[in-house]
Design goal:
Ribosomal Protein S5, domain 2; Alpha-Beta Plaits; seven-stranded mixed beta sheet; 10 helices; about 25% strand
């Protein structure tokens, strides 16, 4: 049996939606797995770090093995082959995509009776949160609320995500350590209300409302302090006409959303990064209103 997984990039938070919101984008990793004699093995693809050839250090095979353990089946006898397009350590959901792919391969190869919520629970146990995984699995804008199934809504096909992606990666673990664990009632109300505004703006296509809706009082300022230039790049994107801009997930990338010509925003973000001494590149991606694709063949 062969399984092919096409899992998209995703950007979480979008400003106020810390661990709640994420959007899927049209950039995907392709993971293939097939039964064959021998131990569990993985080819991480061109340009991958050498340690990712080790199944014990590659999140795709780690997730697969843990899912197999939960199912009570042997993880051996499977060869993985990967094509990674999602930048690693840049706030674009690379780890969620890897973990989700591993769990979905286990689900398909071993015919697990798991539904979407079961799958996201498995990925969330590895990731510590499931917002990116929900967007990657379901597509569109994913909304994750504790105690409720993850849901999604489609966003306008006219929208574009403009990303400035620094050359230097940043670990999510490090970025999460600086996020305050408590904050004031006023800030809680601010973020909750702006999450509501953000969902409404994307649901009805009121993109002009994103400028206010993507403001945050919880995690971004603490992370900007760790990531030189990020705050300036967000400001530059807004000044250049973006509907709204924010740190991409845990960073260090920045995302700007616009239904207009993205080129002025690309130029502004690139210029701001250069002034701040941050080397990187830009990418313009449409949203992906469908989720991960799983193809199984004999």
């Amino acid at each position: 049996m062969r399984v092919r997984i096409a899992v998209p990039a995703s950007v979480a938070n979008l400003g106020p939606g810390f661990d709640i919101l994420a959007i899927a984008l049209q950039l995907q990793n392709d993971i293939r797995a097939e039964h064959r004699p021998g131990p569990l093995a993985i080819d991480p693809g061109p340009g991958a770090a050498a340690e990712l050839n080790d199944p014990a250090r590659n999140l795709v095979t780690i997730a697969y093995a843990e899912a197999c353990a939960a199912l009570g089946v042997d993880a051996a006898g499977v060869q993985f082959t990967c094509v990674h397009r999602i930048p690693i350590g840049r706030g674009m959901g690379s780890s969620a995509a890897a973990a989700l792919a591993g769990v979905l391969v286990a689900t398909a190869l071993h015919q697990a009776p798991w539904d979407e919520n079961d799958i996201l629970e498995r990925v969330g146990a590895l990731e510590g949160h499931c917002d990116n995984a929900a967007a990657a699995l379901l597509g569109g804008l994913a909304i994750c609320a504790p105690g409720a199934p993850a849901v999604q809504l489609a966003v306008s096909d006219d929208l574009r995500a403009v990303l400035f992606i620094p050359d230097q990666p940043f670990t999510t673990t490090e970025a999460r350590q600086v996020v305050p664990t408590t904050f004031s009632r006023a800030d809680a109300i601010f973020n909750a209300s702006h999450c509501a505004l953000l969902v409404r703006a994307l649901a009805v296509g009121d993109h002009a409302a994103l400028r206010v809706a993507m403001q945050d009082r919880w995690h971004q300022d603490a992370r900007f302090a760790l990531m030189p230039g990020a705050g300036q790049i967000v400001a530059a994107a807004n000044d250049a006409g973006a509907s709204g801009a924010a740190l991409a997930g845990a960073g260090p990338s920045v995302i700007a959303l616009t239904p207009l010509d993205p080129e002025p925003i690309v130029r502004a973000m690139t210029t701001a990064a250069a002034r701040a001494g941050v080397a990187g590149s830009t990418m313009v991606l449409p949203p992906r209103n469908y989720g991960t694709r799983v193809d199984v063949s004999a």
